Amino acid sequence: MTYLTDPVRFDQARPFAEATARNAAASGADVLLVRDILGRFSLLVDDRETAIDAGKAEGWRDRLTTTLGKYATDRPLLFASDLFQPDSLFASPRVSPLIGYSPGPGEGHIHLLENTVVGEDWAKVSTPVAEAGGVRTARTAVYGIKGGVGRSTATFMLAKHLADLGHCVLVADLDLESPGSGPLLVAEDQLPQYGIVDQLVESALGNDEGLDLVAQATHAHVKGNGELWVAPARGRGVPGTEYAYVEKLNRVYADVPTQSLSDFADRLEAAVSACEEAVTRASRRPDVVIIDSRAGIHDIAAVALSRLCDLALLFGSDNRQTWEGYRDLFAAWRSSGQAPVIREKLRMIASMVPDSTDRPKEQYLEAFRDHAWSCFSVLYDDLVGDDASGFNPSPEDESAPHAPIPILFTLELVGLDAAATSGWDDRSFVRTAYDSFLETATRLMIEGP
């Protein structure tokens, strides 16, 4: 037995717990590692069909206590036969196989159950469900690991471009803490009475029937037969009543199970669907929904990327903050076993690409691509020898998730009050900056990633 002189920290606890879980699984029993909201571990052993030697069990308990230190729960070892409803844990839909472990002959399986206060939806990747008849609006999430990368402006440009092509487009502003695309697209006096924040608050009480949630864009003049609708984060409110936005925002993230919705993620998904239905009632079903997501590793972003969209456009600049942030996020997806699913709908956007004599855009994009490939490699398969059956695109693969789609930097857009500047998006320098992005993103959204 190894006794540690220094305290065990969060990052060390999981490898220690996994080592004991592997030892327990070698006895033939299935094992479930449970990590609580403080990061502490319990080891649950399924002894219902496999007899466990008492001496071995005592060894596992002692090993967990001594190696995990503060990261062992008060009852670090539990057996299925001692639990009232063991299958509520062992058969929970929230468990996932332990990555990197495959049971050998006579060995049990190992699963992991993570309990977190926030962020659990980063580990739940699913494909949006088709509507009745197999037809469903295509959804694209616009996301950045950091703010200030031009995400909302790109959302405006992309939404208007698609509407100009004849599509019915809905922009859902899910950046609740810092609404961007809503104010950029709709004049304040033309906002709907309620915003997405209202839908989230009211749905927790089952009180969301009949909310006025969408308005047509007033700051984008659409050509042809296309339509551009906006579901803003905040509404204009009821006349004569103060619109208490902050008070509502303080309550939207709570998991308040209702009769039909079990948690915040369900309510957020229902909110986007409610906005789609509002457009359908007012005009026609949207062809495309663009979700302007909250930046950073945030619960809204987790749901937007993992559950709501078919395509996720990841914005970034070629700097350390971008790559460290995405690498942490990708590592979490790989650790939870979601890498093969999530990587199929990701595309990297190189935002505000400089073009100067000191650093031509070609040079910048080459460096961006190499750094992106190194970062995305966390999500790619490890190929062994001549095995080419896995997914591991080369750095030069222009169709790969890491291949940058450029938006050029233009000084004229810095500090521009877009809402007060009519026709700014049709200016030649703006078209030049966004042309490549609009062409590629439109193809991905309409044809699929």
TrEMBL record:
Q: Which Pfam families match?
A: CbiA (PF01656)
**Identification of the protein by name:** KGGVGR-motif variant AAA ATPase
Domain of life according to the entry:
Bacteria
Output the InterPro entries linked to this UniProt entry. Answer: CobQ/CobB/MinD/ParA_Nub-bd_dom (IPR002586), P-loop_NTPase (IPR027417), ParA/MinD_ATPase (IPR050625)
Q: Where is the CobQ/CobB/MinD/ParA nucleotide binding domain?
A: 141-210
Q: Which residues form the signal peptide?
A: none
